[in-house]
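Record 1 of the preview.
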Amino acid sequence: MRRGLLLRVSAMAVMTSLVAAQAISDEIVISDDGRQIQLNSDGSWVQVSRDRYATNADGERVRLGPDGRWRVLVQDQGQNQADASSSALTPMIAAGESALYLAKVEILKRRIKRAKSVHAQTNTVYHLQIRNDSNEVIELGDDLAASLTARSSSGRVYTIESVSYDDDVIEPGEQAGVRVVAAGSPKWFGVKFLSLEIAAGALGNAQKRVLSKNMNDIKKVSVDKL
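->
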């Protein structure tokens, strides 16, 4: 009788271990458009919820619910994220406007040798995605750079050096990418996030938009030239 009990306990332990191993191998990620996605170990994926995620002006992660409510996420002892506060959601994308997403931000770093010392030259690159949800054509001109402002959470503003795109016209229903290069980059310590401010009317947006990326989501890339 005792032996049978031990066998059942051992079988349960093995099953528990297999379930735990499967759970560990799965991964929850945030897609470029802000959706929570579970990557399964068998190569499949599933959308966990209809909520989206963003970063507010204070560099905090915000959960945007489909019910029109938003919630600030806080770290629970460095492990789980919990809702800190919630309020009615002010839509970032109004009907008939363009949808703007900050897909990623990179800091490009080039090392320069001078005499016996090594200096670093950096640029910050904002990869912006635009989806034209309006009935009007969005035209990208040479003056677009003047409508963009790159800054850090500390308030420092970085000069826009260049703006590039594949096509200068975005038809209704189409999507396009814009690459914005700003001179320099912040020190990693003391800066919570980097943001790109888009003036009203610049990219089919009726109001000013501010898109941000937390410093933890920004990668440093070493390059031979900027």
